[in-house]
């Protein structure tokens, strides 16, 4: 095998969905967020596995993603679009039965004019100032919206990964104030909000990253594993250097394996210093710079030359890599790129 392999454990994925589903009352529906190609792991495969596990509602960022997802899921599951009803999206929304989350008065007008009677949701801004109607806009529109085919009222928490942050209670109060008395299903929480407790659950939760094994869902089972093929192995004498800019110099006889993946595969250059590859359980430190397509690894201490080395496993998770790169697991997952051979197991 000459290409890097990204193994996606669909059984761990569906187990994570079930655990997050069980974290809320049985009256609360648990949807699944599969935007950005299922956080890089393949929206179609991921969504089909989750649909088999019982998920009936899916969220994507863009109508185009929704259109692709519809092909994978077939009719039946509800597909909701966070970006709402954008100019040019009308045919897709209609033909593929997508449910736009309307974010402004403009989107609302566009939607009811172009597709009267077509279901929609409304996204409210409760303080994040990113997407959704402001309180004033919603107040002006609310009575009209509630007489249309409205399926969901939602908002999004800015600080749910920090349970003690006062912003959580502030947004909860704002959401209640804007939506109490509306006889429409409500949704406030993504992964982090689910873990804040039942006050935050309302009628529907929208987990994303937790399904894929990432924080803030600390009890998640890892879903993604990466194995990288070794292309070449060489011995270095003390004083020899490795990689671009000679950033690493051997101080003793050293055996270096060159592995076929690099920053073009989401193995970010900045994560180099603390990141290791694994030969089964044995950690092997990276040496020198991460290149676009290649990594160099110290295997001096191995008793056998490895055919491949693992980047992501139960010991080094997406969140370990995120720490090493000064980022979050979300960015690691969605940066993995198109070059991996994706293998789906456990379904
Ligand atoms: C991405 C997103 C989610 C899912 O968030 P996670 O933190 O990945 O669980 C839910 N709702 C909205 C509006 C989002 O943008």
TrEMBL record:
Substrate binds at residues 130, 292. It comes from the Bacteria. Pathway: Amino-acid biosynthesis; D-alanine biosynthesis; D-alanine from L-alanine: step 1/1. It is an enzyme of class 5 (isomerase). GO terms for molecular function: alanine racemase activity; pyridoxal phosphate binding. GO terms for cellular component: cytosol. It catalyses: L-alanine = D-alanine. InterPro entries: Ala_racemase (IPR000821), Ala_racemase/Decarboxylase_C (IPR009006), Ala_racemase_C (IPR011079), Ala_racemase_N (IPR001608), Ala_racemase_pyridoxalP-BS (IPR020622), PLP-binding_barrel (IPR029066). Its cofactor is pyridoxal 5'-phosphate. Pfam families: Ala_racemase_C, Ala_racemase_N. Its EC number is 5.1.1.1. The active site is at 35 (proton acceptor), 244 (proton acceptor). The modification N6-(pyridoxal phosphate)lysine is found at residue 35. Residues 223-345 form the Alanine racemase C-terminal domain. Belongs to the alanine racemase family. Catalyzes the interconversion of L-alanine and D-alanine. May also act on other amino acids. This is Alanine racemase. The lineage of its organism: Bacteria, Pseudomonadati, Pseudomonadota, Alphaproteobacteria, Rhodobacterales.
